[in-house]
Amino acid sequence: MTTVYQVDNTEDDFVSRLKADLIASDNGNNTDMHISFQGYLHNKSGFKLRAENIEVFDGDLIYTWKTLIEDQGMTVDITADLSNAWVQITCKRITRHRKTLRERMKIPSIPGVKCPRIPLSLLLYICILVASIIVLWLRHKENFQK
After folding, report:
1. How many CB atoms lie within 10 A of CB 40?
2. What is the CB neighbour count within 10 angstroms for residue 25?
3. 8 class by beta-carbon count within 10 Å (0-12 exposed, 13-18 middle, 19+ buried)
4. Torsion sign across C-alpha atoms 19, 24, 27, 30
5. Which of 93, 95, 115, 90 is nearest to 105 (CA)?
6. Per-residue model confidence as pLDDT tens digits over 40-54
7. What is the per-residue burial (b if ≥16 Cβ within 10 Å, else e) of 98-125?
8. Which residues pair with 80 in a beta bridge?
9. Between 48 and which of 24, 35, 38, 125 could a Cys-Cys bridge form, CB atoms 3.0 to 4.6 Å apart?
10. What is the mean pLDDT of residues 61-86?
11. CB 4 within 8 A of CB 55
12. Domains detected in the chain
């Protein structure tokens, strides 16, 4: 009988290809580096990898790994413990792609002029405030004109 809490630790083809790409991107600086699959996150929203036996770990390698993973449509968090020579790589799927009002409405941008990003809820509150002022003005117009 299987239980609900059983963990699926079998890696799929995507994870295998990503591991191979991460090892290949090292350019042979860490010949004995090994990347192991730790498991999936809740609801398979991502997974964790662990790179071990790292001797040369610099900013270029972090940048290369981040761009490789982000090109696959995922966000990445890299945690390093260099005293023990391992790196934890947490990859998460991007579930929602948010677009600004300018991108949704196809408003052209003017070079050199930056339009501030105003949240839609703020615009709604401003409209309610203006409508309330108009209603109050119309109700008490006689008292203000004396």
Report:
1. 18
2. 13
3. exposed
4. positive
5. 115
6. 888 778 899 999 888
7. eeeeeeeeeeeeeeeeeeeeeeeeeeee
8. 87
9. 38
10. 87
11. no
12. 13-93 (3.30.1360), 101-107+115-144 (no CATH)
